[in-house]
Amino acid sequence: MRARPGGDTPARGIGRGPGRLLIAVYLLFAIAASARAGYQLVAKFGEAPVAYLLSALAAAIYIVATVGLARGGRGGRRTATLCCTVELLGVLAVGTISLLDPALFPDDTVWSGFGRGYGYVPLVLPVLGLLWLRRTRPRPGPASD
Q1: 144 lies in a domain?
Q2: What is the pLDDT of residues 11-37, one digit of tens each?
Q3: Is residue 80 part of a domain?
Q4: Rg over CA atoms, the chain
Q5: Which among 25, 36, 76, 127 has the fewest CB atoms less than 10 Å away?
Q6: How many CA atoms lie within 13 A of 20 on its CB side?
């Protein structure tokens, strides 16, 4: 089986099998978070600017992660790994802060309460993304001298 540029073979590529479902869920969250953040920033920004800016940040991360996962290759994998890591850290940080001091978040973000408003998918999604990226990482080939 020939390797694609960047090291992913078609059978082990990110966008195969369960990887396609992962990309679809990321795309869905990119669209949902973008729409929600866009509305909040335009119509309600003064009510909870920090929460709405965090929702916009989450949307941007979902968009870039989707592109990285769909693109594959070395650059796409690196981008997706970075996005999934930042996303997981963001969910954990915002989730913890939103529970410890709810007054800081007068309105929910995608990551508030660890993604409670989205069925905790924002907490699970980056973990699944990182696991999938690890599972499908290219294996080193034979040394060529």
Answers
A1: no
A2: 445 667 888 999 999 999 999 999 999
A3: yes
A4: 17
A5: 127
A6: 4
Q: What share of the chain is helix, strand, coil (3-state, %, to 5)?
A: 75, 0, 25
Structure-block tokens of residue 69: 């996962």
Range of the domain at 100: 16-134
List CB contacts of 30: < 8 A, sequence separation 6 or more: 59, 62, 63, 65, 66
d(CA 133, CA 78): 9
Q: Is residue 63 part of a domain?
A: yes
Residues 6 or more apart whose Cβ sits within 8 Å of residue 1? 9, 10, 11
pTM score above 0.85: no
- Residue 45 sits at φ, ψ, to 5 deg, of -50, -40
Q: In the chain, how many domains are there?
A: 1
Summarize pLDDT for 76-133 with one digit per residue, the tens: 999 999 999 999 999 999 999 999 999 888 888 889 999 998 899 999 999 999 999 9
